[in-house]
Amino acid sequence: MATIFSRIVAGEIPSYKVAENADFYAFLDINPVAKGHVLVIPKREVDYFFDMDDKELAGIMQFAKHVAAAIKAAFPCLKVGMSVIGVDVPHAHIHLVPLNSGKEIDMSNPKLKLEAAEFESIASSIAKNFK
After folding, report:
1. Structure confidence at residue 41 (pLDDT)
2. Distance between CA atoms of residues 36 and 99, nearest Å
3. What local confidence, expressed as pLDDT, does residue 86 receive?
4. Residue 97 phi/psi, 5° resolution?
5. Alpha helix (H) ranges present in 3-130?
6. What parts of the chain have a pLDDT lower than 50?
7. What's the DSSP call for residue 22?
8. With 0-12 CB in 10 A as exposed, 13-18 as middle and 19+ as buried, what is 105?
């Protein structure tokens, strides 16, 4: 059975897409710890981040770099933090979170409750800055 992320890539489950290429997909986390919290995934279903081959691992990092630049342009911050945890969903993914103090990336923080219109606005702001 396909993971929730594979179903998002296939268009079976809606998402707030911010970027995509042939191999990777980036979308807003629907339980964000900060505005601009994005998940970056390989389109190929792979559970463990380090099970990706070297080319795919390098590719996801390059893709994430461009997504991070778009996040930083849309949400001015000191840096964009990156976290790879990989326990909740059995599909490799990177969390990208705008940081000002560093505490924003703590996944145990309370999750923000945003309306659909705000998710759409955030996704649009990041997407227009993606290069």
Report:
1. 98
2. 10
3. 82
4. -135, 130
5. 4-9, 54-74, 116-129
6. none
7. S
8. buried
Q: Which residue has the tokens 């970056």?
A: 40
Q: What is the pLDDT of residue 38?
A: 98
CB 81 within 8 A of CB 93: no
- The owner of tokens 């995509």 is 20
CA distances from 15 to 26, 38, 112, 119 (A): 9, 11, 17, 10
- The pLDDT value given to residue 1: 73
Q: How far lies 78's CA from each of 72, 95, 107, 125, in Å?
A: 8, 17, 19, 18
* Catalytic sites, residue numbers: 93
Quickly tell me which residue has 């629907």 as its tokens.
30
What is residue 12's predicted lDDT score, i.e. its pLDDT?
A: 96
Residue type, 70: A
Residues 6+ apart with CB under 8 A from 102: 81
User: What one-letter code names the amino acid at 121?
Assistant: S
- Residue 82's nearest CA partner among 90, 94, 70, 67 is 94
